[in-house]
Design a protein that fits this description.
The chain is built from 30 helices and nine strands. By secondary structure, it is mostly helical.
């Protein structure tokens, strides 16, 4: 009740001093009417807990009044809009510069992290070579999380190979190491890492050894037992950092599925406790989040804590997402889900306000004040007090993991400040193998990394804080790259398909075509060189890796008009679940004819920022003309040269797949089409014989005819096409093929049998106006054997 009275008083002072516009006091009375009932929810906490089923609905209503008031004041809907920071618009070049800075740090990450690994301990040690030769649970699991967070998991391949690092061995060693069940810093970290790194069930298999099974069971039991309690209200026994770590472990356990774990590791009643634990985590974190926003909005700097704000937000996010869409719990038999037990998606206004508030507390150096300690008390002797506080870089990294990239657009300047702190606070040290007694000069293995600002500088770089920093760098880079990708896609009118995942419908409908006389078809080659290599870019832990050997990043599609080159690329994008964008002549002429060269650079700089995107260059021959062509002007030669460099840079980026579609392959400069810029050169002809038969079958499907009639028509249709294939019929494009199949199906629908006479009549009629005839057909025949796989 006192807490509620304090909120009302501070809000009243804030309104009377800062908001004198008409209606402010009436607004206060409205908010007061909302806050006052919530006080009684705190008074009634113990009775509510004791008589749960009878008073749960009333409890939930009173909690909701508190949330309504806090959200009202924390967002633009209320008069007090202090929480909203001014959005700093980073343009493309600013974000690209930020990405390059992050890339420089991530490139050196394997060398930095690898120096902390001690093979004889199978551990990433806090300070390698120290006197305490034991397995470091915290440093090891955080290092594994760093490797999982990388933009590309292959970044750490060389480090793993050099030091013979095997994830499953480290996890097994961690489970056998010394850790206490009541250490709720290490326990949820270890459980989370076990579940996320062993998605392939290499370790968590039914034949799990008894000691490992017992360790995993203890981890699950400890995490479930640490759930927030209603009776504790705002005074939970654990810090909100610990509550978040436990909620994250429970959410991961829920996603993994208790049924997918070996029975020997699942405690009795775990399913109920897991559901209840996540539900209580949502309630507790949402209460605390609203409480912190109210403190800040009212100017109560004594009670406000940015660390509690950030980790109540994170707990609210992970626990809500874990339960969103699931049925609530039945408290009274037969009455269905009780009020308040059905968890909804996180409230976006609340999330935005909390993020604004957190970044609003950032200091000029890019960091935050210490805030609530990790442990509320320390019982371990010799504990360095600096370890008691959350490393702000870890907090930022966690926010970057669980919030959409778009949420950080208003806070890019703040992220840049944090990155500046990271860049300027990297430490270097030496693990001495030998020290000269005369010069006091020490020689040994160099050690680089970071340490928490809460530790004294003489502590040197630490493995755990270095891992947290590298994790934050990777997650920040992922978010920046996603923003860049979205902006470029929007600028050029592309289709965002990546959120929808792979879809087969358009690909299945796409008619195949033969690649000359090679015996291969276009779809089979695209499946082999693009779909399969890029579709297997995640390992068992969900880490994104480079595609397998033989992957093609680029291809020229050439052939006569009307052979669906654009449709092929768009269908491929849907098949792979990638974005899709078309770049045509207009994209390069947007700044006028005199600025085409500059525009080429502008366009390709942005295309290099795209990731997992199918890019189609459609009919851009005029910018790639053969420089040996007699009479070609100097300006055209320079454009071809500019395009050569741009295409080469796009290919080397290896972030997207791009196609060049043309009807005039011979017009291109030979340097454009050579291997290295384009991995493949594929002839896109008319639909092949199998595709024609599929078209005819599709036209027969809706007809009310007997199976015998249908089978007879299909057999004769195929037989006739085989007889006349090398004549006109082979050169019908897609639309002409559809028309021919439809005309034949109409004959069947009218009760006529297909025969050579009536099918030839249709063929002769259509051949008079077909696209591929005369000189175009000669070019078609000459191009059939120019495919390069």
């Amino acid at each position: 009740f006192f807490c509620n009275w304090l909120w009302v008083r501070t809000i009243w002072v804030d309104l009377t001093q800062n908001y004198q516009e008409p209606g402010s006091k009436m607004l206060f009375l409205q908010v007061f009417s909302l806050l006052l009932p919530s006080a009684f929810a705190f008074i009634g906490t113990i009775p509510i807990t004791r008589f749960g089923q009878q008073t749960f609905g009333t409890y939930n209503y009173k909690r909701q009044t508190l949330h309504t008031a806090a959200i009202y004041f924390a967002t633009d809907n209320g008069s007090c809009s202090k929480l909203n920071t001014a959005a700093v618009n980073f343009d493309f070049d600013d974000m690209k510069s930020l990405d390059r800075r992050l890339e420089d740090l991530e490139r050196t990450a394997p060398d930095t992290l690898g120096t902390y690994y001690e093979g004889h301990l199978q551990s990433f040690s806090v300070r390698p070579g120290g006197a305490a030769q034991r397995f470091s649970v915290t440093s090891s699991v955080l290092a594994l999380e760093t490797m999982q967070s990388a933009v590309d998991c292959s970044i750490y391949d060389s480090m793993k190979k050099s030091f013979n690092i095997k994830t499953e061995i480290i996890i097994e060693a961690a489970l056998r190491a010394e850790w206490r069940e009541d250490d709720l810093f290490q326990v949820p970290l270890l459980l989370f890492t076990v579940l996320t790194t062993d998605a392939g069930k290499v370790l968590l298999k039914d034949t799990l050894s008894p000691d490992i099974a017992e360790s995993v069971k203890k981890l699950i039991s400890s995490v479930l037992a640490a759930r927030p309690k209603r009776r504790d209200g705002a005074n939970q026994p654990f810090s909100y950092y610990i509550i978040y770590q436990c909620a994250r472990a429970m959410a991961t356990l829920n996603q993994f599925g208790l049924e997918n774990l070996p029975p020997s590791v699942v405690p009795e009643g775990a399913a109920f406790e897991l559901s209840l634990g996540l539900e209580r985590a949502v309630e507790s974190s949402r209460d605390e989040l609203c409480r912190q926003l109210a403190y800040r909005a009212s100017g109560d700097r004594t009670s406000f804590d940015s660390v509690r704000l950030a980790y109540s937000l994170l707990t609210y996010l992970v626990a809500s997402e874990a339960l969103a869409g699931t049925a609530g719990r039945e408290l009274v038999e037969g009455e269905g889900s009780a009020v308040g037990t059905v968890i909804k998606k996180p409230n976006r206004n609340l999330v935005t306000a909390a993020l604004d508030a957190y970044f609003g507390e950032q200091g000029p150096d890019g960091m935050w004040v210490a805030g609530q300690p990790i442990y509320k008390s320390f019982r371990r002797s010799g504990k360095n007090v600096g370890n008691a506080f959350v490393f702000a870089v870890d907090t930022v990294g966690s926010l970057l993991q669980y919030l959409p990239a778009e949420d950080f657009r208003p806070h890019l300047a703040s992220l840049s400040k944090t990155l500046t702190w990271i860049e300027s606070h990297q430490l270097s040290d030496v693990i001495p193998d030998y020290c000269d007694p005369i010069s006091s000069q020490c020689y040994g293995k160099p050690l680089r990394g970071w340490t928490s600002p809460h530790l004294t500088p003489d502590m040197g770089p630490q493995a755990w804080s270095t891992a947290q920093t590298l994790t934050c760098i990777s997650r920040m880079r992922k978010n920046i790259r996603e923003l860049l990708n979205d902006d470029v896609l929007y600028e050029f009118g592309g289709r965002s398909l990546s959120d929808e995942g792979p879809k087969m419908a358009a690909w299945d409908r796409l008619l195949d075509t033969d690649l000359g006389t090679s015996g291969r078809s276009l779809k089979s080659v695209l499946e082999e060189r693009m779909v399969l290599p890029f579709g297997n870019t995640q390992n068992d832990s969900g880490e994104k890796c480079s595609p397998s050997i033989g992957a093609a990043y680029s291809s020229i599609l050439f052939g006569p008009p009307g052979t669906a080159k654009t449709t092929i690329c768009e269908s491929l994008a849907e098949r792979m679940g990638w974005d899709f964008v078309v770049i045509d002549t207009a994209s390069f002429l947007a700044d006028g004819l005199t600025n085409v060269a500059g525009r080429i650079k502008y366009v390709f700089d942005r295309l290099q920022a795209l990731e997992n995107c199918i890019i189609l260059f459609d009919e851009i021959e005029e910018f790639c003309l053969d420089r040996e062509t007699p009479g070609l002007g100097m300006e055209s030669r320079m454009l071809t040269t500019a395009m050569l460099t741009a295409i080469n840079d796009l290919r080397r980026a290896k972030r997207s797949i791009f196609f060049l579609a043309t009807n005039r392959l011979r017009a291109f400069d030979s340097a454009i089409t050579r291997p290295g810029r384009f991995d493949m050169q594929l002839f896109v002809g008319t639909p092949n014989l199998s595709a024609r038969c599929i078209l005819f079958q599709a036209r027969l499907t809706p007809l009310s005819i007997s199976d015998e009639t249908r089978a007879k028509a299909e057999a004769f249709f195929k037989s006739y096409l085989e007889t006349v294939w090398s004549e006109d019929i082979m050169f019908f494009n897609y639309l002409e093929s559809v028309q021919y199949a439809s005309a034949c199906a109409d004959l069947v629908a009218a009760g006529n049998e297909l025969n050579e006479e009536n099918m030839s009549a249709i063929l002769t009629s259509q051949a008079k106006v077909m696209t591929v005839r005369g000189q175009v057909r000669e070019e078609y025949i000459a191009s059939m054997e120019l495919s390069r796989l």
